Every structure is written in structure tokens, then in C-alpha cells.
Amino acid sequence: MLGAQLAALHDGALPGVDEALDLIAGFDDALVSGFARLGEERAAALVALAGALGGTPLGPSAAEAAGKVTVGSITDEHLTTLAGARTALFGAVHDALLARLDDALGRSRADWEGTQPQSGDPLAGACRSWLAELAITGWRGVDHGLASSADQAIQNLLAEPRLRRPAMLLDGLAAELRASSPVGAMERLPARRWADLWARGLLLTRTGGLEATELVSGRLLPLGVDVHEHGTAVQIQIHAILEPHGRLVRTSVAAAKVDTIAGPFVWQLLSSYPVLLDALARRLSLEVTDMPLLPSGDLLWHEGRASAGAYTDPFATARVQLTGAVSPAVPPLERHPVRIAEPVFVEGYKSDGKTLQLDGSGLAFDLDRLPQSGPLTPQLLKASTACIGLMRWDGGQWRLQPLAVQATVKKERLAVHNGDWALGPTDQKARGSGAKAGDPVAVLKERAGRLLRR
Amino acid sequence: MNAERPAWEQLSGARVLSPVQPRKLAKVPFVEMAEGRLQGVVSSGSDIERVYVSSITAGTHGYNCSTNNNRPCGGLRGTPCKHLQSLVEEAVLQYGLERVARYLRAEGDSAATLVRILSGGHESIPAAVVFSRFLRHLAYLELPDTSEPVAELHWFPSLGAVS
Ligand SMILES: [Zn+2]
After folding, report:
1. SS3 of residue A408 by DSSP
2. Is A261 strand, coil or helix?
3. Interface contacts A/B by beta carbons within 8 Å
4. Which of residues 85 through 124 in chain B touch A, CB cutoff 8 A?
5. Which structural domain, as residue segments, surrounds residue A218?
6. In terms of C-beta distances under 8 Å and separation of at least 24 residues, what long-range contacts does A13-21 make, across chains too?
7. Cα–ligand 1 centroid distance for B75 (angstroms)
8. How many domains does chain A have?
């Protein structure tokens, strides 16, 4: 990314975005106090949100749902429609942001050609009732009992592999609500975030998984790895260029965990993917054969269809091949700003560790997305002059999430990547604190083996 | 560019939970603050098959310790046993002193003083409930992993840099 591209990204407000975000904030505020006691102002906010979709196919049902909910008729169907309305509005914000980013970068993007099937798994019913109860009560009224009341229902979802996505989402939300209870005593609430997770929970429990539309073969050149984590889940998502197609793709693997397994230990939970982890740790390319590709640009990773290739420098890939690569389409349900994670390469900047300056334009690093499982630190960012990262947008601001940097430390030129510790920490300090913590994965697996099957 | 950080309330990726601190799990594999109690499981020092279930009620500071089969702990003679001490020590390592003290509604400047002021006496707290929560905790490690992309986890950034 060049200075001029960064300037173009920030050049002028996006029409309609602030208005859409205001409507969403009104909705989120209604969820804070609960749909059972809306009051005039919050009832008007729901009606306004529905009204913004007046010219779309969702308009009439959204208006009806808002009307019904504001007079106290709060059904699963009405709540789902309102969640859909909020999601559609955020979808429009997402589209505007991504179009601006693509324009600024000169990046072309594939058209959406997949289908997003509907599904209504009965197993999810109890979780949907819980989401309805939360909306009626409002975040402010959530106590320990309500926060925990779906625990068993969520366990049932977790046990079903095809419901893993809603299960991981709702497990994350429930843990935050439990730890925040009684929510009424909190000084401030993550209103945007919880409304996001609530709306997504309602929609996701009605949506089936994407089907692969093609099988692809070729060479995968990794750019970097993004790590997602909450108390009971971890996912690594590799961004890569698939050659000879010149396409940007992702591939992800995720595992369940517990909160005491964190930091560099999370890699151990993914040890059934040795080819993938080895390639990350040793910076190898990967040869893939007939790997299923989703229309969202996600390769469904199969260890058996991949083998290690030659050493490859992600910075060389980013420098040479990222500019011309084609980005994948975004599935309709995933059109939300939080899902924007577009790989970019920036070099020749100056940084204080928090923000980078490039030809007079500034861009903040997303320090909230620096994982504990890898070697990147704010100090390294400060010493860095080149970065492979993901463009992120949240709370009205673009930020750069670093996946790898080149930095000069004690006159030595270093390249440091998020995936460097995929086979265990390579850094003395991290190894030391790891040894101090023992091996939590081994301890808990031993306990599980001894106690679970008695 | 807007140099100010956006309001936390308006962030989709707002951090709500602080990461737990790493600690050795061998002695106390499980500790939680839930159901109005600080509770957990302490491995027996002598018998690898045996675990103790220890718990302290917030507010009243009543406590209990027994094996997972509900046999009372021999160390519990009018004062908290060594398992309860370990439970509090490890909870303080994992969550920090301030959070543990706030949850228990107790004051103390160390794990040891938190144990010393436990004055609620022996309280009947069913070990089976806590033990089954521990088993459910362990069951996470038996769930199959997946290569289906979980787009929802973009809401859950990894838990922050070490330094
Ligand atoms: Zn004891």
C-alpha cells in the first residue's frame, strides 16, 4: 500500500455510513434496556431502523416486526426479522467500506456466485429462546442466572460438528455475560459488540454451511496468519496467494480449548495439522491438490491433499504478487465491517509503535489484535519499516493488524511473523515463561483421560 | 486521520474479558468464580486417581472440601485445609488478587490473608456439582477440530501481546 492509496482511503466521508451507524446505535440502545420496556424514544429507534430498509425487499416485514415488538408482541419471528434488518444495514456499511478500500488499493474482487442455504436445526431452538429472553430483558437486566441459562443448550450445539459456528459464537457471548454479571452494575456496556453477537446468533442458527464450488490445485504462498481466540475456542486463519491463479485465499483450522490454555500453547491444540504448522514455522510454500474451495475464498484444509513445498519469503510474495491478486467475494451473511481483513503490504514508513506514518498519511496499528501466541510486540512495530498486515475497520476507524514485520533490532535486520511459534516458541523469553507454566495441554489431557471415562 | 481511539461502546471487537494469566495446572487443574462461589478441583498429592473439590461461598465465606465422591477432606478441622489454600493461591495467580477479592467480597493483600479471613466455617456445598463442571471443562479438549472457517471468530481477536 502506497501513501497515495492510504490518503485515498481516508479521502472524504462515505455517504450514508454515519446515518446507518446512528440507526444501529439506536437499536443497540434498545437492546441495552430490553424490548419489554422500550419507552417512546427506543421504540422510535426500532421503527427508524426498519424504516431505513423501506426501499428493500426486507422493508415491509421489518416495519411490521418493529411495529409488533414496540407494542409488546415479541416473537422469535419478529426478533429474527429485526436482527436481519440490523444486519442488512451493517451489510450496506460493509459494502461501502470494502468498495472504498478496493478502490484505494486498486484491488479487483470476484463476484459472489455461491448460495447461502437456510437451515432450521431443532438443536438450536433452546439457544434461540435464550437470545429472545436476552432481548426482552435487555443487557442491563442480565444476571448470573440468565447469563448461564443456555449453558447446557450451548454444550449440545458444541457436540454437533455442523453447528460449530453458532456454538463457538454463543459460547463466547455467554462467557462474557457470565463474567459481566450482574450487568446492571457495569459502568459502561459493550453495546455494539453484544448486539452484533446477538443478531448474528439469531441469523446463524437459521443458516446452513457454505458448499465448496470447486476443487483447486496449485502452490500456496502464505502471506501471514491471523489468530482468533476466546476462552473456549482458537482459530488460525492463513492468508495466502494461490498460484498459478493469482487468487487471494484463506485457509483456517479451529479447535475447542479452555481458558487456561492460551498464548503459545494454543498451537499444540492444532497438532493434527502438521503439514500446515510446519509450513508456517519454517516459511514453506504448500502444494495443494484438489482442495475444496468455498465461494468465500476459503480453502477447506485437508492435510492429505497438501504437501510441503520450497522455502518462500512472505515479504517477497507480498511485495511482488499482492498488487495484482484477485480477492474473493464476501458471502451475504458475512457482510459486516468486523469481517473486513484485507491483506496489504506497507513499507518505508516511520512508526512510534502505535501509528505508522507514510508520505504524510497516518494509519494506526491494531494493537488489540496482536496475539500472545506469536512473537510480534509493540516494540517490534516501533522498530519496523515494513509490514504485512490486514486492513481492519472498527468504531469508525481504519487500522492495520500486523501479521509480520521487518525490523532492525540491534543493527540486525529481522523478519518476524505471527506463525513463527507454530511448532513452539523460538524465543528464549517465551520459552522460559512456557517452562514456568508447565505444559497445560498435557496436564489437562491427562486429567481428561483419567477422569472423563470413569 | 482521526487520532482519537473510538469509543469502546461503539467497537464490534471491544475486549470484555481480560486474558487469564498462565499458571501451572498440575496441582489445581481447575478454578472458577461461578455460581456465587470460588470453586475448583485440587489434585491429591498422594493418589493420582483422587481429586478434591474445594469451594468458598462469596459473601458468607463458608467453605467446603471433599473428594469428588463426597468423602469429607481429612484436613478440614475447623480451619481451611491445604486444598483450600491452594485453590485461593491459584485463583489469585489466574485472575489476580483484586478480582478474586472482589468476587469473594473479602479484603486481603495476598492469597494467604484471603484464606486467613475465611470465617464462615464449614458449609455444605455439593462436590458433585463442581466436579461435573470440571468434567464439562475437560470435555472441550475432546471436541473434534474443524477446517470449516468460523467467520464469527473475527469478533474475538487473540488476547493481546505479551509485553
Ligand atoms: Zn481439603
Report:
1. strand
2. coil
3. 250
4. 94
5. 214-321
6. A14/A96, A14/A97, A14/A100, A15/A96, A16/A92, A16/A96, A17/A93, A17/A96, A17/A97, A19/A52, A20/A52, A20/A89, A20/A90, A20/A92, A20/A93, A21/A93, A21/A396, A21/B10
7. 5
8. 2
Cell of B8: 469502546
ipTM above 0.95? yes
CA–CA gap between residue A410 and residue A246 (Å, rounded):
37
B13 and A369 in contact by Cβ < 8 A?
Answer: yes
Query: Which residue's entry shows cell 506463525?
Result: A419
Flag whether residue A227 sits within 8 Å of chain B, measured between CB atoms. Answer: yes
Q: Where do the DSSP E strands lie in B47-160?
A: 51-57, 63-67
d(CA B44, CA B28) in angstroms, rounded, equals 9
> Which residues 27-46 of chain B have a CB within 8 Å of chain A?
29, 34-36, 43
Determine the residue among A173, A220, A338 to mutate to test chain B binding: the one whose Cβ has the most chain B Cβ atoms within 10 Å: A338
Residue-wise pLDDT tens digits, A344-362: 999 999 999 999 999 999 9
Residues A277-320 pLDDT 10s = 999 999 999 999 999 999 999 999 999 999 999 999 999 999 99
Q: For chain A, what is the mean pLDDT?
A: 95
- Return the ∠ at Cα B88 (arms to B83 and B93), rounded to 5°: 125
Interchain CB distance below 8 Å, A169 and B154: no
Measuring CA to CA, how many Å separate A51 from each of A17, A27, A55, A225?
A: 16, 12, 9, 41
Contact A389, A346 (CB under 8 A): yes
Tell me the C-alpha distance between A85 and A51, whole Å: 10
The arithmetic mean of pLDDT across residues A378-407, rounded, is: 97
Which of A184, A204, A224 delimits the end of a domain? A204
CATH value at residue A314: 2.40.50
In terms of domains, do A172 and A286 share one? no
Which helix (H) or strand (E) element contains residue A329?
A: none
Based on the domain organization, do A153 and A242 belong to the same domain?
A: no
Whether residue A254 is found in the same domain as residue A197: no
The Cα–Cα gap between A447 and A46 comes to 50
Q: What residue spans of A36-75 are helical by DSSP H? A: 39-51, 59-70
User: Where does a domain end: A302, A321, A340?
Assistant: A321
Domain ranges in chain B are: 20-138
Torsion of CA A325, B155, A91, A84, to 10 degrees: 140
CB-closest option in B22, B144, B153 to A228? B153
